[in-house]
Amino acid sequence: MVIISKETRVIVQGMTGHQGTFHSGEMIKFGTNVVAGVSPGKAGTKVNGVDVYNNVIDTLPLKPDASMISVPAPFVRDAALEAMENGIKLIYILTEHVPVHDTMELYHEARRKGVFMIGPNSPGITVPGQAKIGIMPNNIFRVGDVAVASRSGTLTYEIVKAVTDAGFGESTVIGLGGDPIVGTTFSDIIRIFNDDPQTKQIVLVGEIGGNEEEKAAKYIKEHVKKPVTGYITGISAPPGKKMGHAGAIIEKGTGTAESKIKAFEDAGIKVASYPDDIPALLRK
Amino acid sequence: MNLYEYMGKEIFRKYGIPVPDGYVIENVGELKKFEYPVAIKSQILSGKRGKAGGIKFAKNAEDLKTYSEQLLNSTINNLTVKKLLIERMLNIKKELYLSITLDRATKQPVIILSADGGMEIESVPEENIHKIYIDPMVGYSDYIAREALSYLPVENRKQFSSLLESLYRAFVGEDALLTEINPLVIDGENNIIAGDSKVIIDDNALYRHKDYMITDPDKTELENEAASKSFTFIEMDGDIGVIANGAGLTMATMDALTLHKLKPRNFLDLGGTDNIEIVEDAFSFVMRARPKLIFVNIFGGVTKADTVANGIVSSKKKFDIKQQIVVRLSGVHEEEGQKILLESGIKAFNNMTDAVKELSKIQGVE
Hints:
The complex is a heterodimer of chains A (about 280) and B (about 375).
Chain A: E1 9-13, H1 18-30, E2 33-38, E3 46-47, E4 50-53, E5 66-69, H2 76-85, E6 90-93, H3 100-113, E7 116-118, E8 124-127, E9 131-134, E10 143-150, H4 154-165, E11 170-175, H5 186-195, E12 201-207, H6 212-223, E13 228-233, H7 257-266, E14 270-271, H8 278-283
Helix pairs in contact in A: 2-3, 5-6, 6-7
Chain B: E1 2-3, H1 5-14, E2 22-25, E3 38-42, E4 55-58, H2 61-71, E5 75-76, E6 79-80, E7 84-88, E8 92-103, E9 108-114, E10 129-133, H3 142-149, H4 157-173, E11 176-187, E12 192-194, E13 198-201, H5 221-228, E14 232-235, E15 240-244, H6 247-259, E16 266-269, H7 276-288, E17 293-300, H8 305-318, E18 324-331, H9 334-343, E19 348-349, H10 352-363
Parallel strand pairs in B: 15-17, 17-18, 18-19
Antiparallel strand pairs in B: 1-13, 2-7, 3-4, 3-7, 5-6, 8-9, 8-11, 9-10, 11-12, 11-13, 14-16
Helix pairs in contact in B: 3-4, 7-8, 8-9
């Protein structure tokens, strides 16, 4: 188990919205300790039985550890800065289509303040048996020892379900987000999975764009003894096209699936050709 | 969003970066009396315009008209020239390279400089390229220009410093992913002028820059129309229409087809929806791409399998779809969904591998 637990006290910024209401409800059902919601102008209302406040500062008496940010893209920068300024050390951003200049600023501010930032454009983090901050379906998990990190949403659920159906369970599942800049990268998370005693095996689901898979592969080659299984999407992607995720783009010949698959293979990572192949590779 | 040269130069002008005097025309009737010689530059989003014959020079009004007529509506590098930029010709003494881009690896803006301008930066030797990284939370400061000047043969230091600061302000202010000046021209009077512009604006920030909300010239007509309905739809040259949910799963679907020597006609991410009409909209775009066969690959979550199944059945009727539809439905409400399809004579598979095998069988490429 890493990053979050049953004890993690979570606030949801944007809880009164459609997504915030639905997903905070699902999080509570999963066992997450949601202590407050924040929506400017909505103080005094309740969502899923949880009190809503106007400002993050108003929730500080409840000692929040983490914030889920589910506000429209134009307001993400402001909401995340508010959470960080108020001392919250774990920030998860669900929202898609955040301008990359905003994310770039949040990334550097988070590093400076020692804040663990997940996303944007991420399905969040789930620790089966403990807590979930995000939007992953509740019923695909089982407590276990496989840690999964991915840049996708639906594809992650598909893979996690296949892993669970094959008799395995998960220690932690994290969606890093589909944007060109995200708070937590493969090379950050691989260090955490490597140090986590519950995690015995690691699955990395990467895609075209950027060089984070290559950086993680280098670290794995040098430091990780746990078995790692990888899968990369985008072998069929034409260069210069954004394949649904803002970050999934081959630019000037860099960020290709071939480069990432090669880096994985060089690092001794077992590479799946299809998502369906992953459970079999975990057994090897 | 890639901007045309003339749009990039409008941004440069707005931020005080010197650009040559000029104007844009769409037909020769718009030609004006101007100081000769002039450069006539085809406005297309493609490198190597000059080599492909997209840039011409005119010494008088007669040449200007002749060349403009030649270039307008001609095809250069597979693109149709719809606009020309007519500019005062520069007296070029030196050509430098200057750009600011977003470095994904370090997650910060980087200034890229070279004394070798006028050619593609990719063909400049590594040792002649200099990079200066900027902390976005700290921003620009004058030492950056001093460092930049140590790499470049520039006499007019004051003008360069102000230009570099302006370019950084434009990069941040316009939510650019790239602001490139190549060549950055030093003329006979030691003035520094942007000879060309290449600007890419972050699509996700277009709500802050409504001026650029034009039809994306890099996209096909169908892709632009789909984008206006919030679908990511990408046309490809195969024959299997693809509808899947989630960008990652859609990519994985196309990869699985490719690995089986099957060719996708398109990428279409249905996204998270529980609305039959959105499924129908997705089909309308795929059908307009005229696929030979259709593959729908859904892992149900927020997008429920039975909703998609109902959408498939209604689309089949609505668009009179004769092509075979191969469906894989899994996840939330998969049993209900499969039952709905079976009643309409469509067999749904439970996993992707079996569905792709079925497609191979139909296409005869086992």
